[in-house]
Automatic annotation (TrEMBL):
<keyword id="KW-0805">Transcription regulation</keyword>
<keyword id="KW-0804">Transcription</keyword>
<feature type="domain" description="HTH deoR-type">
    <location>
        <begin position="5"/>
        <end position="60"/>
    </location>
</feature>
<dbReference type="Pfam" id="PF08220">
    <property type="entry name" value="HTH_DeoR"/>
</dbReference>
<dbReference type="InterPro" id="IPR037171">
    <property type="entry name" value="NagB/RpiA_transferase-like"/>
</dbReference>
<dbReference type="GO" id="GO:0003677">
    <property type="term" value="F:DNA binding"/>
</dbReference>
<dbReference type="InterPro" id="IPR036388">
    <property type="entry name" value="WH-like_DNA-bd_sf"/>
</dbReference>
<dbReference type="InterPro" id="IPR050313">
    <property type="entry name" value="Carb_Metab_HTH_regulators"/>
</dbReference>
<dbReference type="InterPro" id="IPR014036">
    <property type="entry name" value="DeoR-like_C"/>
</dbReference>
<dbReference type="InterPro" id="IPR036390">
    <property type="entry name" value="WH_DNA-bd_sf"/>
</dbReference>
<dbReference type="InterPro" id="IPR001034">
    <property type="entry name" value="DeoR_HTH"/>
</dbReference>
<protein>
    <submittedName>
        <fullName>DeoR/GlpR family DNA-binding transcription regulator</fullName>
    </submittedName>
</protein>
<dbReference type="Pfam" id="PF00455">
    <property type="entry name" value="DeoRC"/>
</dbReference>
<keyword id="KW-0238">DNA-binding</keyword>
Length: 266
């Protein structure tokens, strides 16, 4: 297929939104042009805001070009998030020191721990702070830094410096996507986010990732955080058996939660 530069770039944008990840080599063969021509096309489209470069270094484009806002994500899959949060509450013991990440699933967990338990909670999330602000049973540490409006959370060197002075019994992480690479990876839109998540994991004895089924295997962005061996994935009952088996196959402790917040046996 031979096309003009403008027509080819329109086709690339369409592919990015309909076919998911596509490599430079695949695009080069499809359009019968050199890899350097495709890289130039991708650079132009990225600069114009038409696509987002994703995993694979300079070798891929993503099926979705933007990061949705926290407000948008908070409205999505709310029942699944509430169920996962209800179960995740059972993983926390009275008197522990817990780290809560930014993200709508973790904010749902914050709602679960507002009463009935005494904890020290540290967080990078404005939404979590808002959920816990009126609880008199919790000691809350706010880890400030540079605000990312899209995630309603703090990142950057100030946040990292604060984290390095603390250790935690457990950390609960959100994710834009979760994959089975290595012992598992979290995919995010921003390298500062993934750097921070890796530091969170290093500072915690137990690592939990709250991710509804739509996040599993999802690879929209280029930034990755490696997860340590022995982490636990908490997901909802719409996750397919094959996907659950794939995560279990790399050593992940997968907990599938039903609509009532209890474990589903498979």
């Amino acid at each position: 297929m031979i096309s003009s530069a403008s027509a080819r770039r329109l086709d690339i944008v369409e592919l990015a939104h309909t076919s998911g990840l596509t490599s430079v080599d695949e695009l080069s063969a499809r359009f019968e042009v050199t890899a350097s021509t495709i890289r130039r096309d991708l650079a132009i489209l990225t600069a114009d805001g038409k696509i987002a470069r994703t995993y694979g270094g300079a070798m891929a484009i993503g099926a979705q070009a933007g990061e949705s806002s926290f407000r948008q994500r908070n409205l999505e899959h709310s029942e699944a998030k509430a169920a996962m949060a209800h179960y995740a509450r059972t993983l926390i013991a009275d008197g522990e020191t817990v780290l809560l990440d930014a993200g709508s699933s973790v904010a749902a967990l914050a709602r679960e721990i507002r009463s009935g338990i005494s904890l020290t909670v540290a967080t990078t999330s404005i939404a979590v702070v808002e959920e816990l602000a009126e609880s008199d049973q919790l000691h809350v540490e706010c880890l400030g830094g540079t605000l990312r409006q899209a995630s309603s959370g703090f990142v950057g060197p100030l946040t990292e410096a604060a984290l390095e002075r603390m250790t935690f019994d457990s950390v609960f992480l959100g994710a834009d996507g979760v994959t089975t690479r290595g012992s598992g990876e979290i995919c995010e839109a921003d390298l500062q986010q993934t750097r921070l998540k890796e530091l969170m994991c290093r500072q915690a004895a137990a690592v939990y990732v709250l991710a509804d089924a739509t996040k599993l295997g999802r690879e929209l962005f280029h930034a990755r955080a490696s997860l340590p061996a022995g982490w636990m994935l908490v997901t909802d009952a719409t996750a397919g058996d094959d996907v659950v088996a794939e995560f279990a196959g790399v050593g992940v402790d997968v907990r599938v939660v039903g609509a009532d917040g209890t474990l589903v046996t498979r």
